[in-house]
Specification:
It is a single chain. The chain has 337 residues and is an alpha/beta fold. Helix content is 28%, strand content 29%. The chain has helices at 16-27, 63-76, 140-150, 165-176, 195-201, 262-267, 304-336; strands at 3-12, 35-38, 54-56, 61-62, 80-82, 86-90, 95-100, 104-115, 119-121, 137-139, 157-161, 180-186, 209-211, 213-219, 226-231, 244-247, 250-253, 257-259, 271-272, 277-278, 291-293. The longest helix is centred in the C-terminal third of the chain and has 33 residues, at 304-336. The structure holds flavin-adenine dinucleotide. Flavin-adenine dinucleotide binds next to helix 1, strand 6, strand 9, helix 3 and helix 4.
Length: 337
């Protein structure tokens, strides 16, 4: 049987956006007992927990250090956080249905909700590589999880497709862990990441970079055994004469991120086509009164500092919203008397 709880503010997602939103709401006058953070993973911190490399925040922390710092601040402030808890749905009256190992199916009625559900990677479809679907083809984020969290390598000889920050970071990580990155390639003429990042992650480790090059075929039935690559002509078509077979036992791709917005979509929140995130007001409120959005679920941010700032702003605005609700209630009560 489902139970119903009440909370003034529920924040969904405990990445840098959700945690900084919780701290900011507290700072802006919402008592700790009125704030609840819900997180489907076992740990607080969101995607930062996958990032064991440095380069986060002003002090160049690792992602995991920054996640721990934010999570400690939230816990030490006495804000309740429920981990291993997945929000299944929200309705327009702000009734949240969740499932958690301790509570089972539970409903929470909130006065305000902040969606801080982050982003996910674009799928292999974004690569437009036809052919078979053998084992050994995985996204950069999955490779990051396997290596950094679960402690095993996706393969011994890897081709990396894409030159996003994440692709470069994973190419470096595979090399540091003793794997071989045969090359990193991108169909674009320039890397998608900054030149300095290419230097730090690829040049320094002698990882070859092939630009304006694509994968035209994947070989292997049960497990990937190799790929066919080709340079591209001016119109972006593979040049037949440059086709070459390269042996590998794994292919890691990174096609960029897309905001995670299943909950917002199912609620009928108005979305912005350009960002794939909810359309928000200057005060970060979505098209549904009292439902706010921040971080990478609102729009993809390049820098974690900007995500933290986004979360802080959402915390301030949602606190203002809750205060005005309280004042309205008070006024109504006074009128009745
Ligand atoms: C696979 C992957 C790898 C990445 N690697 C890097 C990297 O190496 N470097 C970098 O700078 N950036 C990386 N990013 C980008 C990263 O998303 C941001 O750096 C930053 O963590 C985003 O902060 P956020 O708080 O908006 O979202 P996140 O940190 O993603 O946090 C969102 C949280 O919401 C939770 N959540 C989502 N839906 C629900 C639900 N229904 N119920 C309960 N909880 C829910 C998720 O479990 C998650 O913990 C990566 C992103 C992905 C998807």
């Amino acid at each position: 049987m489902s139970k119903t709880m009440k909370k003034r503010l529920v924040i969904i997602g405990s990445g840098p956006a959700g945690l900084s939103c919780a701290l900011s709401a507290l700072k802006n006058g919402i008592p700790k007992e009125n704030i609840l953070v819900l997180e489907r993973e076992e740990e607080l911190g969101g995607t930062l927990n996958l990032c064991i490399h440095a380069g986060f925040g002003k002090d160049n922390k690792t992602g995991t250090e920054l996640a721990t710092e934010l999570a400690d601040k939230v816990r030490n402030a006495g804000i309740t956080c429920m981990t291993s808890t997945t929000v299944l749905s929200i309705d327009k009256r702000k009734i949240i249905t969740l499932i958690s190992p301790e509570l089972g199916y539970t409903k929470i009625t909130a006065e305000a909700i902040v969606l801080a559900t982050g982003c996910r990677e674009r799928s292999r479809g974004g690569l437009s590589i036809g052919g078979t679907r053998p084992a050994g083809i995985l996204s950069a984020g999955t490779a990051q999880r396997f290596i950094n969290l679960e402690g095993y390598m996706p393969g011994a000889k890897t081709v990396v497709v894409g030159t996003t920050d994440l692709a470069l970071v994973i190419a470096r990580r595979i090399t540091l862990e003793g794997g071989q990155v045969v090359f990193v390639c991108d169909s674009k003429k320039k890397p998608q990441s900054e030149r300095v990042k290419v230097g730090e992650c690829l040049d320094y480790f002698n990882i070859p970079l092939k630009l304006h090059t694509t994968i035209t075929r994947i070989f292997g039935k049960d497990r990937i055994e190799g790929v066919e690559i080709a340079e591209l002509d001016k119109k972006g078509r593979p040049i037949k004469e440059t086709k070459e077979r390269v042996e590998c036992d794994s292919l890691v791709y990174s096609c960029g991120f897309i905001p995670e917005n299943e909950l917002a979509n199912s609620l009928g929140i108005e979305m912005r086509q350009s960002t794939h995130g909810p359309r928000t007001t200057r005060k970060m409120e979505t098209s549904i009164d009292g439902i706010f959005s921040c971080g990478n679920s609102r729009m993809i941010h390049e820098d974690v500092d900007d995500i933290i700032l986004d979360g802080k702003k959402a915390g301030k605005f949602v606190a203002e919203h809750l205060k005005s609700l309280k004042e309205d209630k008070k006024k109504k009560k006074e009128k009745k008397q």
